[in-house]
Each structure stands twice: as structure tokens, then as C-alpha cells.
Design a protein that fits this description.
Length: about 260
């Protein structure tokens, strides 16, 4: 979704705006914008530029991230078929062939642990987003001047050797207790933390669960003929976000 696409989307919503029926964020923004313009409010954040950037940011932050995590998920399932077996076994046993809903998550601890471990190992936003100190701070003995750019390295937490039993290995047991119940770990921080934590965290978690279960229920993922599981390479393609390097996988329909 480019800025041009977002402008076209907003233009269409503007032309069909009915202030008594709010269809979503853009409508709410436009209604407030009109109100402030009518009252001659100056320096309002409800202006055209902010609207376009807000919507562009939501698309940019919200689509590529979940899609990349799912791509990592399928690659890891093809590479570790015994994990894929256990996810599919748990889903068949607990929900059968019906489609999973968000409420099923608590009854699928292994699947939940696998999704968390995919996010931990995939580490798709390794440096979060740059932040700037709004005042002088002393943090763990280090003086950081007001206005300094700070990059929170999420990798250092997601791969922390003092937090994870096998930080560099795909191991869903990181999120399972001895009885096989799911448990949360403080060092699970793919969405960052604090005031500027990912705004879409709960939406992303819901999407990942629904898409992952749907895809695993219907298909079995394998390397293409002639390629072994060991040959599937987990080295990421480097960028601001980390995505899997291009691979071909087979998706075989399950009965
Ligand atoms: C697997 C999926 C996702 C991951 C791993 C992820 C991760 C992150 C991270 C690490 C940040 C930076 C937080 C910081 O500045 O410290 C962030 C920010 C943000 N994310 Fe996500 N995100 C995901 C999905 C989404 C979705 C679905 C949306 C919404 C549609 C979204 C919207 C945002 C927004 C608006 C911010 C900026 C928040 C702010 O600066 O206050 N993200 N995300």
C-alpha cells in the first residue's frame, strides 16, 4: 500500500462520508477535522498530512509484520516436521476439523507455544523503532543526554542467554511447563515494551493465531522434492525487518 493508494482510499471515504454513520478511523478523523475547521482551531493535529501518514503507518506496521511472521512460521514447520506433527495432532484432538476461533487458544497450549517460539526466533523487528530521550536520563550508570537517539535492541532480549534455555534453537518448550501448559516469559518481547509498545500487539496475536491454525489445519508444509529439511536455510534476508530468504515449499492438502 503506497501513499498514493492511501490518498485514493481517503478520497473515496471523504466523498462518501456520512457524519451520522462512522465506518472507522478515517471517518472519525474526518468528522473531527471538519469540526475543528468550522471552529477555526489553529495548530490542530487533525489535518490532511497527519491523516495520510497515520493510515500509511498503520498499513506499513500492520501488514508486512504479520505476513513475515507467518512466512517464518511455515518455513519452520517445513524444517521441523516433528513440531508440525504435534501442532496438527493437538488441533485435530482439541478442535477437530472446525475452524479455530480466538477462544480456542487457551485449549491449544502446544500450538500457542509454537507461535510464540516462531516470533521469538524470527525476531522480525530486531531494533524496534528509534526513540529519542525527552530529558536527561541516567540508566544503569550511563548518562544519556536529552535528545539522544536510542535503539532498543530487541534481539538482545529475545536471544538472551541468561533468559532462554536454548536461545539460538527453535524450541517451543521455552513456553511450556513440565505438564505441557503454556506459560508466558518476560523476555518474550517481539512487540517491544513500555509506552510505545506496538499498538497492534493484540490484533497481531489474534491474526497470527487464526491464520496459523487455519493454514496448518488444511495443509502440510514440506521442502520441495530433492531438498532436505536440513537444507532449509534460516539465515534472514537483512533489512529494517528480518524476513526469511526466498524458499520454495510444498503445501500438501490434508484430508
Ligand atoms: C507480528 C506482528 C508485529 C510485530 C512483531 C510488531 C512489532 C512492533 C515493534 C517492535 C514496534 C516498535 C515499538 C517501539 O517503538 O518500541 C511496533 C510499533 C508499532 N506497531 Fe507493531 N508489530 C506487529 C504488528 C502490528 C499490527 C498488526 C499493527 C496495527 C495495525 C501494528 C501497529 C504498530 C504501530 C502503530 C506502532 C508504533 C507505535 C508507537 O510508536 O507508539 N503492529 N510494532
Amino acid at each position: 500500500m503506497t501513499i498514493r493508494d492511501v490518498k485514493a482510499l481517503v478520497k473515496n471515504l471523504k466523498e462518501t462520508l456520512n457524519p451520522s454513520v462512522c465506518r472507522g478511523l478515517v471517518d472519525r478523523f474526518l468528522i473531527r477535522k471538519e469540526k475543528e475547521e468550522d471552529s477555526c482551531v489553529k495548530d490542530t493535529p487533525y489535518n490532511e498530512k497527519n491523516l495520510i501518514f497515520t493510515i500509511t503507518n498503520l498499513f506499513a506496521a500492520g501488514t508486512d509484520t504479520t505476513a513475515t511472521t507467518l512466512r517464518w512460521g511455515l518455513l519452520l514447520m517445513a524444517k521441523y516436521p516433528h513440531v508440525q506433527d504435534q501442532v496438527q495432532e493437538e488441533m485435530s484432538r482439541v478442535i477437530g476439523s472446525r475452524q479455530a476461533g480466538v477462544d480456542d487458544r487457551k485449549n491449544l497450549p502446544y500450538t500457542d507455544a509454537v507461535i510464540h517460539e516462531i516470533q521469538r526466533l524470527a525476531n522480525i523487528v530486531p531494533m524496534a523503532i528509534p526513540h529519542k530521550t525527552s530529558r536527561d536520563v541516567t540508566f544503569q550508570g550511563y548518562f544519556i543526554k536529552e535528545g539522544t537517539t536510542v535503539l532498543p535492541l530487541l534481539t538482545s532480549v529475545l536471544y538472551d542467554e541468561s533468559e532462554w534455555e536454548t536461545p539460538h534453537t527453535f524450541n517451543p518448550s521455552h513456553f511450556l511447563d513440565k505438564e505441557g501448559n503454556f506459560f508466558r516469559r518476560d523476555a518474550f518481547m517481539p512487540f517491544s515494551a513500555g509506552r510505545r509498545v506496538c499498538l497492534g500487539e493484540s490484533l497481531a496475536k489474534m491474526e497470527l493465531f487464526l491464520f496459523f491454525t487455519f493454514l496448518l489445519q488444511r495443509f502440510r508444509y514440506t521442502p520441495p522434492p530433492g531438498v532436505t529439511e536440513d537444507e532449509l536455510d534460516l539465515t534472514p534476508a537483512v533489512g529494517f525487518t528480518l524476513s526469511p530468504s526466498p524458499h520454495e515449499l510444498c503445501a500438501v492438502r490434508r484430508q
